[in-house]
């Protein structure tokens, strides 16, 4: 299912940090899982970006600065 995502600062960080390569242009999933239907809050997303998620390929290897990470987590939570 193709959704219309909101662009802005969060989307720019999503592209800049190469998240788009793994999760697709519209969060539909690519080599990584889709992100359109998740149960996480912005705080939980921030924690996953930092530390990964148990039983998943995401290992929490983020090197983005904390402010960008929070913007990205909040943006993902709104999608």
Characterization of this structure:
46% of the residues lie in helices and 0% in strands. With 79 residues, the protein is an all-alpha fold. The protein is globular, with a radius of gyration of 11 Å. It starts with 8 loop residues before the first helix and ends with a helix.
Helix fraction, binned, reads 40-55%
Count up the helices. 4
Poorly predicted runs: none
CATH architecture: Orthogonal Bundle
**Number of E strands:** 0
User: What is the domain total for the residues?
Assistant: 1
The H/E string reads HHHH
CATH class: Mainly Alpha
**Gap from first CA to last CA:** 14 Å
Structural Rg:
11 Å
Q: Strand percentage, roughly? A: under 5%
CATH homology superfamily:
Cytochrome c-like domain
Mean pLDDT: 83
Short description:
This protein has 79 residues and is mostly helical. The chain has four helices and no strands.
Features:
79 residues; 0% strand; mainly alpha; 46% helix; Cytochrome Bc1 Complex, Chain D, domain 2; globular
Please specify the SSE layout and strand pairing.
Elements: H1 9-16, H2 19-23, H3 42-51, H4 66-78
Helix pairs in contact: 1-4, 3-4
